[in-house]
Amino acid sequence: MRKFSGFLAVILALAFIVGGVEALTFGDMSNPKGDKSGKAGPVDKTPVEKAKGPDSYTVAEIYKKSAELDKKKVVVRGRVTKVSAGIMGKNWVHLQDGSGDAEKRTNDLVATSQDLPAVGDVVTARGTLYKDKDFGSGYKYAAIVEEATLKP
Q1: Are strands 73-87 and 122-134 parallel, antiparallel or unpaired?
Q2: Where are any strands of DSSP class E within 88-139?
Q3: Alpha-carbon distance 99 to 109, whole Å?
Q4: CB proximity list for 48: less than 8 A, separation 6 or greater
Q5: Longest dimension (CA), the chain
Q6: Which of 11, 114, 121, 152 is the most buried (most CB within 10 A)?
Q7: How many C-beta atoms surround the C-beta of residue 76 within 10 A?
Q8: Torsion of CA 103, 107, 113, 117, to 10 degrees
Q9: Residue pLDDT, tens place only, 21-45
Q10: CA distance 40 to 82
């Protein structure tokens, strides 16, 4: 039993070193299609045209109107800057459209989805907006679009 517990400790230590604490708690938090830095960054800074139709907003508008949009359906179009796949049974997709302010953290919006786009794709996300969503373990979002469908 001692050998097994020692072996397990080594495996867990290696997982922590390679994948960080997130790898032990939520699965692989890296981007499965490229960058493994863990940072959401713009792939291309070219602004993305706002989605058309009712309930459509830019990333900045979602943050600005998050109180009135809380628990309502929204549509937002943006470029995928990071994907964390298979965490808590969903894919966590970071979207940027060129609006918002990086210093105020209003330029990057996370959408959870069963769809799995590639970094660099421009997608339209349709889902329910939640304001100040706290998943615990330090994962708190001022605004997040949940159960989104992502279409090109």
Answers
A1: antiparallel
A2: 90-96, 109-113, 122-134
A3: 11
A4: 77, 78, 79, 96, 97, 98, 122
A5: 63
A6: 121
A7: 27
A8: -110
A9: 344 344 433 333 444 344 555 457 7
A10: 5
- Tokens found for residue 75: 């549509």
Q: Give 16-50 as a DSSP string.
A: HHHH-HHHHHTS--S-TTS--SS----S--SPPPP
Q: What is the pTM of this model?
A: 0.73
CA dihedral (32, 38, 43, 49) in degrees, to 10, reads 90
User: Residues with Cβ < 8 Å from 8, sequence gap 6 or more?
Assistant: none
Token reading at 32: 């499965």
